[in-house]
From TrEMBL:
Residues 304-437 form the GGDEF domain. It comes from the Bacteria. The keyword NAD does not apply. Keywords: Phosphoprotein. Residues 148-205 form the PAS domain. Residues 446-700 form the EAL domain. Residues 7-123, 713-828 form the Response regulatory domain. Pfam families: EAL (PF00563), GGDEF (PF00990), PAS_9 (PF13426), Response_reg (PF00072). This is EAL domain-containing protein. Residues 222-272 form the PAC domain. The modification 4-aspartylphosphate is found at residues 56, 762.
Amino acid sequence: MKPRQPNILIVDDELQNRRLLAVLLGPEGYLTSSAASGEEALAAISTVAPDLILLDLMMPGIDGCAVASILKANPATAHIPIIMVTALVDRSARLAGLDAGAEEFLTKPVDRAELWLRVRNLLRLKALGAIESHSAELEQQVQARTVELQRFRTAMDATADAIMLLSHKTMRFVEVNATACAMLGYSRDELFSMSPCALDETDPQQLAGLCDALIALGTDTALSTSELVRKDGTRVQVDIHRQAMRSDNDWIIVAVVRDITARNEADRRLHHLAHHDPLTALPNRMLFYATLKKTLEVAIDSRWKVAVLFIDLDHFKAVNDTLGHMVGDELLIQFSERLTQCARIRDTVGRLGGDEFGVILVGQEGQQAAAVVAGKIGAALRAPFLLHGHEVSVSASIGITIHPDDSSDPDTLIKYADTAMYRAKQAGRDTYRFFTAQMNADALAQLDLESALRRAIDQEQFVLHYQPKLQLSDGRIAGVEALLRWQRPGVGLVPPNEFIPLLEETGLIVRVGSWVIAAACRQIAEWLASSVGAVHVAVNVSGRQFIDNDLDAEIALALEKYGVPGELLELELTETSMMANTERTIDILCKLKSRGVQISVDDFGTGYSSLSYLRRFPINKLKIDIAFIREVTTSPDDAAIVRAIISMARSLKLEVVAEGVENEMQLNYLRRHQCDEIQGFYVSRPLTAAALRELLACPPVLNLSEGNFARQVLLIVDDDALMLDMLADVFSADGYDILTAHSAADGFDLLALHDVQVILCDQQMPGMNGNVFLDIVRELHPETIRIMLSGQSDLLPIMGAINQGAVYRFYSKPWDNKLLRDNVRAAFQHYRAMQAMAAAQRALPLP
Ligand SMILES: Nc1nc2c(ncn2[C@@H]2O[C@H](COP(=O)(O)O[C@H]3[C@@H](O)[C@H](n4cnc5c(=O)[nH]c(N)nc54)O[C@@H]3COP(=O)(O)O)[C@@H](O)[C@H]2O)c(=O)[nH]1
């Protein structure tokens, strides 16, 4: 390229001088322009700045010094070199010129060689000055950029995300921050020298394609999740935001890389938490369901069978309620471990909630495999669990459904397995049941019944019947028990056993129970206001009424609403319901008792039966369950239980009511053993309110004669009628009340009805012989004195009976009348002595 010709401005008021200088400069390749005055020069310079100015010192108007001063004062023109041309040779004129800013002087007339030399030197110097200032400028720029870059790097390095800048042209990193180095284990220089493809195992074409796509996106950023390989070969999961940015004639791909390992781990943990039971770590209901759904999809294609086992621990609630939730939790954990061991790796074990677990079995066998696993689960539970120092034995009830036999829908399979599990429970627990179509029909019937019951509640289709309780001391009606009946439209009166279990199961018992309390209070108030007067009414209360609502407030409200004194209301609770939620139940019962409400334990003897535990409850009465009353006069076991309950109740100062009394024998037996009240068909069946009113107006007269308590009653038992007569004759003169029985059965009835003190019994009787009879009597009526009459020479059975305490004396037939009478008299004396001793013991204070 041809160098640019320097442009020189000649300023002189003399044309001659201007022309001369132009002529002198022309041959040296300079372009010249001229100005005839200082003003003209300044105007020209403001338009085009010359490379050098030859300035005449002495000019009219603005002289050379003034022009120089103006130009040097202006930064835009200060750099233009000025050669002052003057005819003046004195020193002061020259100094004035230099002072004004001129770089050089030429004296007129101008010497050509000196002119060229000065011009050339000044132009060179100017060029040098321009370069220097340019490099200074450049240096400044570089410094500024370096500071900027440093600041940028510091900022980049302080960023938690890795930042990597990739040149599109070179496909190499041009910048990376410290986080990138730390994340990937490479130094900055290593990253600059390596191909980015090594980091995510792509090939260069892929990378180029990715960059092109980003460039096409413009300023938009693209997000992707990827995995990068560290220097040590390990992998790091990352989110990458990429953006292409123009940089001169290149594109820079900016990648902001975030390590998402921790986030992924947190996500994984969250996912695990959402799908697993935190206590047992087993899949929860949601995951169990999802697994079953997937398993069924595969099974349908591959024609496999899938069995679903629904497992529920038996009496788990009792463990929880009595030993506490910590023990309950531990049981669930240990059970889940045993359960998992019963399944194969490919099976799924899950916790469906509470004490309910599920197992999914896949295979060809279906039923057989399910039965085997169910058997294994049962066997796994044989060994007791050691739970925080308590040894606990539990069993499980299992329901089983099979795909494709029962259904191929996950919901239905689980529901059917649940239904079958209930059947296993009903069958006595600790067993398993396969689902059957009948179960489904039953389940549907249950649903029908449930909706009918909901309607019954809304439409108040319930009524109360009342069954009297008789006080044994005086034969008066002591009160009544309110018993629920359902007047089901189109069906008639439905007894509670047919619907109370479902009310309990569905929780509807709480609403119905509230209705019962209100209805009973309303009825008490009605009787109170009528000629009937005060009637003490007991209502049955379910355990759920204690848990699900504020029973105390509810009863208080009902008593207040109907103006009923608390003393006329009694609550009957079963032992089992008392054991659930003990503390809350005790609290509520105490509040109720303070209102005068009586509390009795229903069905006593069938549940927990721990009187020491029951002492914590503010109870007034025990109701002995009907199961012990049915055979109380013939079953030594039942009789012993009844007597034990009465005696324990006495010592705790509780009243005792026997329920289900159906005959006079039971009544007398209970009366003789100090039972306070009886309830049962013998007194009356449950009655409508109207029928009860009539009964109360004209109460039943029951045979409650003082009996023969003060008399001496001798029972003679012999199948031989002649023998019976003879024996009765022998004792007729001794003033006893003599009862005769032809068989053991008759003997039991008479013993129940009368206060027999001495028994004389033939050993050889058909049916039950004397040994067995007296042995049972010993248990039923231990206070009696039992004498055996034997015609046998074999004394061994009699000796046995004597040793067991069943027989007090024995006599061989034929007997000596006098000896026999003496001994019977002695037997009565012995009886009285024993009674006196027992009474004295009873009178002693309790330990
Ligand atoms: N939670 C509630 N439970 C209630 C309510 N009303 C009744 N029930 C419970 O339902 C069960 C069955 O009651 P029901 O069919 O009324 O039977 C009672 C009596 O009829 C029956 N009974 C009475 N005497 C005799 C008899 O001599 N022989 C005989 N075979 N049965 C007899 O016993 C039932 C009373 O039992 P109990 O309550 O234990 O005293 C029953 O469990 C009721 O409790 C209610 O409102 N809420």
